[in-house]
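User: Can you fold this complex?
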Amino acid sequence: MNRKLNRRLALQTLASTGAVASFGPLSLLAHAQKPLTVGVIYVGPRDDYGYNQAHAQAAAELKKLPGIKVVEEENVPETAAVQKTMTGMIAQDGAGLLFPTSFGYFDPHILALAPKYPDVRFSHCGGLWTEGKHPKNVGSFFGYIDECQYLNGVVAGHMSKSRKIGFVAAKPIPQVLRNINAFLLGARSVHPDITCSVIFTGDWSMAVKEAEATNSLADQGVDVFTMHVDGPKVVVETAAKRGKMVCGYHASQAKLAPAAYLTGAEWNWLTAYKAIIEAAQAGKPHPNFLRGGLKEGYVKMSPYGSSVSEAAKKNADEVKAKMLAGSFDIFKGPLKDNKGNTLLAAGKVLKQTDLELEKMNYLVEGVVGSI
Amino acid sequence: MRNALREIALPIGALAAALLVFGALVWLAGVDPFDMAWLLFKGAFGDAFSWQNTLQRAAPLMLTALCVALPAQAGLVVIGGEGALVLGGLACAAAATQLPLPANLAGSVLACVAGALAGALWVMLAGALRQVRGINETISSLLLAYVAIGLFKHLVEGPLRDPASLNKPSTLSLPEGLRIGGIAGSDVHWGLVLGVLACLLLGGWLRLTASGFALRVVGGNLRTAQLMGLPATRLVLLACALGGACAGLAGAVEVAAVHTNANASLIAAYGYAGILVSFIARHQPLAIVPVAILFGGFGAAGSLLQRRLGLPDASVLVLQGLTFVFILASEALRQGDPAARWRRLWPARAALKESSP
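Assistant: Here's the predicted assembly.
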């Protein structure tokens, strides 16, 4: 029975490729009547203590919601394989909403499939959906996690004795640069002479290079670490082994090094997932562009570790309260890059929602490293 | 006749044995093994969608497996096909976006030829290092693959980068006219046809032609080949070039049919998977086709197993590993006379049997 239903659904989908486009809202309403199957696709393992785990945690919460069925697949590369996985979820599992969570799934893979399945909703994490350029049944969501990296920086600024903090990064792309800059700016809000050394490993998951980078930064006197790689496990464990402190990223790594873990920048994808699912269930238009920070509940901080000083907690909590109230800006003038060029004149401010920030291509003054 | 039967029965027996062991494993993990077996079949070969899924996954593997098989026929163990693949993809993207190629079939062919050429030169380099400087080709081809990936990233993130590719550095996209589409409206792109054709042609060449035979003599016994006056070095380089061209072509097709530009997603370990495919196919180009399809089937079935049974991705790797271990183990049964082996294993008992009236 189930199999027949799926086949019928697949046929329907195929047949409706052209015809349904003009009846878009109608077919969405029809979708809302039956339980919604949601497909979640991960580029790495679900238990990586990082990017994929953050999504898997939210997917696990989705399973508890009524009227929702979740199908998942992990370790799906950004090749034809992900197109097959998405098509399989639609045709074999009857999925009406997909969360392909890796950045590289967007172009060309989601963009290739979305026009073929106009009544399936595609919600991509991290991409920049653009009105007029991308299909209406596609959307992108992301969080302003640089707010949490700024708070990581505030705590690091208080805890660092050497006044040298370190960042192990994957690639010099805007999302990563924004985190590095926010981390340093947070730390400099405590001590203006702090420097942050950054090492780029070149790819998202390079365990050996991540360990080497951590060791080499530790040798240079760095005593608080954070990172932006897919699985922060290696950096956290290596830093802890060297007796250094660490601020987490993506998900909580507190379990891996309870003594060394200060706090961390975590995703809270459930907020975005829920908003998108509610729209699908109610037959409302697909949310094409969702962004949010601490205030909107898209990101959160790990609980403070036992070694964090009272002064650090107090300072970070104050800034966090301002962020929650929407009265705090991270990128404000005067701001220079680390080559001495002026980025923002005094008095100028880039709000978190400014798309200019999603094109970041510089390291701010105080970051030791080059792109 | 008996040999032909054995050729077919052994791999099927191995597959069955692997399924049995894997079934026991998933049963211990609380999953119904019959459910699992049904889903495996359904996911890999159950319907038109599954077949497309399987064949699409198999297509690049046929070409990268040839990059191992051809040098192996000449006695070389080359494991750096990944390098040829990424450079092939890069050369295809570079040719298509930097040169004024005509936006039609001829242009697509030229872009793919550029990819094949890049791959051929890269693997030939490993062959030449071996022939001229005596450097072990297994190590050098592997290390050259790392160099190739470094070069790829440098060019994609630097000189060839599309400035609009912010969070995912990529080259410019191929013009619409140069891209490779699906076969007769299906999702399976023409890379599959190229892969099968390459396997057939190269298999035929090795078996039916004098130069193919000469190559196998070089691989079988280098001294003999030299005594016979065969141009060993030239043949070795030819095998490397042909193998590298196949892997380079795989990269070019991936770019032109799937990614539409060259970016780091191209580095998806097809080159390394090809090593396994070639070894399982005993470096026979004709056998590569079914082995690659089996491999593609595992990928397609694994996808369904994960979604339906919630099994981790690693479980399919376990099945794949079991299958290949059993296939390799069954090789032992292939050679010679099983009865003779029995006598060798149990000489006393065999002697007893023979002496008894």
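Chain B touches chain A through 32 residues (CB under 8 Å). The two ends of chain B are 33 Å apart (CA to CA).
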